[in-house]
Structure formats: C-alpha cells, structure tokens
TrEMBL record:
InterPro entries, alphabetized: Bact_response_regulator, CheY-like_superfamily, Sig_transdc_resp-reg_receiver
Signal sequence residues: none
Lineage: Bacteria, Bacillati, Cyanobacteriota, Cyanophyceae, Coleofasciculales
Entry-annotated residues carrying 4-aspartylphosphate: D24
Keywords: Phosphoprotein
Protein name: Response regulator
Length: 98
C-alpha cells in the first residue's frame, strides 16, 4: 500500500497492521523521523520493522534514523535486489503465526 499523507498513514497502519513499513524522510506536513518515532512509541508498532528511504545518504541521516528506531536504511535510487534483501532480512524474522 502507498500512502502520501503521513497523518492518514498512521491511521491506515493502525487499521491494516503491516508486517514492515517503508518511510520516506521527505513528506508533507512532517518527516520520516517524526513518523518513525511516533510508531516506536506506539505499542502496536514497537516490533514492526521500519525502513527509511532517502536520496540523502549521509552519516547524520543514518545515525538519526537509528536513533528514532528505524531498522534499516535504503538510499534512492535503489535496485530491486536491495529491496528484496531488506524484505527477506526483516520478514524472515517473523514466525508464521505472527
């Protein structure tokens, strides 16, 4: 599912409970850091893997992403192979009953 409005996104996440969340750092009204931090403070999403997407591959962005609770970081443009590796890495940790 693709969501452009981060405020709507949080409500959609709560309704659909995704197994993994990709967050772009650049969003209207807020940024990926704030959304990630909000998700990490919610018991419903504390264990949900969050992957930050950005075109700015700097050390500060990577460190800040980890600080707010992101599990991984992908720099745009990325290849489908990289996305598949991230999916495999984080979704293989979930048990079939989850």
């Amino acid at each position: 599912m693709y969501i452009q409005d981060p405020i709507q996104g949080v409500a959609t996440f709560a309704k659909h409970k995704p197994d993994l969340i990709f967050l772009d750092l650049v969003m209207p009204k807020t940024d990926g850091y704030n959304v990630c931090s909000f998700l990490r403070n919610s018991s419903a999403f504390r264990q949900t893997p969050v992957v930050i997407l950005t075109s700015c591959d700097g050390l500060i962005n990577r460190v800040r992403s980890r600080f707010v609770g992101a599990n991984d970081f992908l720099t745009k443009p990325f290849e489908s192979k990289q996305v598949l590796e991230v999916l495999k890495k984080h979704l293989s940790k979930k048990s079939p009953e989850s």
